[in-house]
Automatic annotation (TrEMBL):
InterPro entries: DUF1385 (IPR010787). The lineage of its organism: Bacteria, Bacillati, Bacillota, Clostridia, Eubacteriales. This is Extracellular solute-binding protein. The chain crosses the membrane at residues 111-133, 153-173, 219-237, 243-264. The keyword Transmembrane applies.
Length: 311
């Protein structure tokens, strides 16, 4: 399995994707395609064009900066695709509440955009509070002297350990949900399809499904690299009052995301084993966030992939 993960692909590509509700989203260059299987068995494919911010603004192409920008942009695109997929799979809709009718009167046709960006903001706030601010607050409970250099480093390391534990527990808990497990299966199908494309194989279900579901360019691995990077960078920050600590972590978060992005991209390409080791915990975590798909799920992933590649 590990040999396939680190084997140099026959085709170098930047195709990436995301698992959706009963579907898969694929991105390649300016093309974005979503493929969703409806309740009647039909696969609905939708293709849109999106020019990344990095192509439009030179500043956003610079190392480190591009990582933070890419993370936010990917969240917006991914959230939109997820919400679109929920509408396409014929989920039985409940009668609109009075509050929903009220929102429609205020925002009209722009309600979807408002919900989309609100969801991204809420997801960001939740993630920052759960994985960055909460660990710092808990680490502050430990009674040793944090004003010394050694005490400050120890407090930061304890904070980092708590962050890892919370992250692992969160992933494990959400994986127990039946609907999320289906999404994780589509996540595995997404990786199967990309491996087949990188191996220059014919894009068939039979060729794709034989590959591993663990991929070095997966977002799960990136998130884990973000956490490891935060532990290293925050260890150089002197421990202060709780409010100052939290403010510093918020200010440093774009730097953490940017540095982690550069490490993540380099680790996915290099043959240097010590650098690969940074990605290894994230790859092991994919054993939870990706699950073996069935043939019908791989078929959906291939439909999305074929829509964004030239072959």
């Amino acid at each position: 399995m590990e040999k396939e993960i680190w084997k140099k692909p026959l085709r170098q590509c930047s195709v990436g994707g995301e698992a959706l509700i009963e579907g898969v989203m694929m991105r390649n260059g300016n093309k974005i395609a979503t493929a969703v299987r409806k309740s009647n068995g039909e696969i609905v494919v939708e293709i849109t064009e999106h020019e990344p911010l990095a192509k439009r603004f030179f500043l956003f192409r610079l190392p480190v900066i591009r990582g933070a920008v890419n993370m936010i942009e990917s969240m917006v695109i991914g959230m939109k695709a997820l919400m679109d997929s929920a509408e396409k799979v014929d989920i039985e809709e409940e009668e609109e509440s009075g509050f929903e009718k009220f929102l429609k009167k205020i925002f009209g046709d722009k309600l979807f955009q408002v919900m989309l960006y609100s969801s991204v903001v809420v997801a960001l706030i939740f993630g920052i509070c759960l994985f960055f601010l909460l660990p710092n607050w808990i680490a502050g409970w430990f009674g040793f002297d944090k004003s010394t250099t050694g005490g400050s480093i120890l407090a930061n390391l304890i904070e980092g350990l708590i962050r890892v534990i919370i992250f692992l527990m969160y992933v494990w808990l959400v994986s127990k949900n039946k609907e999320i497990k289906r999404v994780f299966e589509y996540h595995g199908a997404e990786h199967n399809a990309i491996y087949a494309y990188e191996s220059m194989e014919e894009l068939t279900v039979e060729n794709a499904i034989k590959h591993t579901t663990l991929h070095p360019r997966c977002g799960t691995t990136y998130l884990f690299v973000v956490i490891i990077t935060s532990i290293i960078l925050f260890s150089f920050v002197k421990w202060r009052s709780p409010l100052v600590n939290m403010a510093l972590r918020l200010l440093l978060l774009p730097l953490v995301a940017g540095v982690a992005y550069e490490i993540f991209k380099l680790a996915a390409k290099t043959g240097f084993k010590p650098l690969r080791a940074i990605s290894y915990p994230g790859l092991m975590l994919q054993k939870i966030t990706t699950q073996p798909p069935d043939e019908s799920q791989v078929e959906v992933a291939l439909a999305a992939l074929k829509a964004v590649v030239d072959d």
